[in-house]
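Figure 6 in text form: structure in, sequence out.
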């Protein structure tokens, strides 16, 4: 059997579909990226640069359109620089509690109005020790105090956190109550500055700011001064670290990665095939027929393709039976079966079943059917030549 090296043209035909699909996918991805532009949402909750439903880009852009200078910062140094010498409101949303107590106090004292969005216990202890956490709040809240932003809002979405005053304070106002002395907005007024604890964080999100009085609340609380510093701390503000990957990596990670690398190498050596030296052979290569037959048989056996193997035997048997019985090699199976039945005086349905319909389910059945094909061929030859049919041992 001669095996010819595939031509470039045939290889391209086989891979044309996948190549065209890959090119189309790349073009579509490029169009989508160009359509979205360079401004991609950062995915951070209530981020002024996040256009997703849980972001707060809408509030920041509306404030900017109304003349408020909005500074979006992510480090304590940037926040201090933006607040220096400015009549500013500071929005501080430290969702991961990156800041220490002294850092919270430092940046809060620089602002004329500090708005804490869902502050944690550490922040409350430093800037509002009279306030304690009161759990989660859900549902709509109505105005219940004289603060202008709340009065104009009327009804707002209160989803977020609730707080309560642990001790009474003359300079404190509690608003947006949800029962059990739980409030979603508490404001403290000092001589030269104000501090607002806002737990209704969902009201600021892009998804909900346009409903109820959420927009009035957000603009009223955050737009009281000509400058707004939108500060969401990051890992860079953690005390005692430069936020490098090496410093933040757990001590056990490097040994585990090294061990995994060695395991992969060991598995490759264990399971890998030992390849010998390259052998140069000139093409086309002539492969002995018996090697091809043995190789195909092993593939059939490995894939349990018993019917495929039996069909290969049937093709050869039908072709030889056609010649033996005086028919052309291109004769149909039905014609060959009818001629063989008339020659051997065997049942036509049995011969047709053997040559066309039988399906082996086990290796033993495959061997039995192949033996029956061989017996049928020998019997036909014997009757066609006038010889006495012979039987194999065990038949």
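Output sequence:
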């Amino acid at each position: 059997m001669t095996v010819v090296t595939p031509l470039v043209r045939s290889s391209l035909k086989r891979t044309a579909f996948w190549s065209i699909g890959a090119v189309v996918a790349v073009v579509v991805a490029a169009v989508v990226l160009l359509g979205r532009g360079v401004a991609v949402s950062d995915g951070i909750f209530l981020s002024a640069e996040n256009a997703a439903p849980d972001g707060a880009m809408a509030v920041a852009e509306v404030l900017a359109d109304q003349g408020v200078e909005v500074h979006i910062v992510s480090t304590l140094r940037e926040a201090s620089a933006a607040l220096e010498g400015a009549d500013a409101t500071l929005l501080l949303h430290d969702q991961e509690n990156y800041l220490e107590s002294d850092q919270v106090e430092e940046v809060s004292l620089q602002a004329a109005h500090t708005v804490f969005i869902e502050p944690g216990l550490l922040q409350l202890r430093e800037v509002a020790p009279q306030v304690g956490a009161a759990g989660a709040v859900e549902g709509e809240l109505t105005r219940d105090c004289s603060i202008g932003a709340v009065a104009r809002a009327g009804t707002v979405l209160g989803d977020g956190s609730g707080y309560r005053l642990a001790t009474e304070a003359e300079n404190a106002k509690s608003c947006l109550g949800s029962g059990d002395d739980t409030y979603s907005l508490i404001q403290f007024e000092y001589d030269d500055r104000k501090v607002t604890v806002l737990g209704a964080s969902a009201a600021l999100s892009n998804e909900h700011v346009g409903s109820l009085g959420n927009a009035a609340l957000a603009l009223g609380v955050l737009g009281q001064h000509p400058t707004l510093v939108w500060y969401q701390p990051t890992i860079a503000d953690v005390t005692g670290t430069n936020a490098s990957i090496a410093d933040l990596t757990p001590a056990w990670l490097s040994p585990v990665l090294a061990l995994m690398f060695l395991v992969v190498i060991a598995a490759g050596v264990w399971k890998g095939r030992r390849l010998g030296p390259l052998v140069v052979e000139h093409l086309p290569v002539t492969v002995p027929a018996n090697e091809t037959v043995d190789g195909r048989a092993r593939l059939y056996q490995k894939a349990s393709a018993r019917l495929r193997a039996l069909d290969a035997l049937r093709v050869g048997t039908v072709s030889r039976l056609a010649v033996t019985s005086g028919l052309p090699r291109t004769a149909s199976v039905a014609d060959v079966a009818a001629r063989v039945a008339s020659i051997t005086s065997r049942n036509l349905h049995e011969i047709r079943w053997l040559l066309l319909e039988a399906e082996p389910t086990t290796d033993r059945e495959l061997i039995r059917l192949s033996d029956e094909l061989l017996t049928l061929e020998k019997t036909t030859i014997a009757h066609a030549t006038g010889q006495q049919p012979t039987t194999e041992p065990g038949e």
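Caption detail: The domain at 57-237 is CATH 3.40.50 (Rossmann fold).
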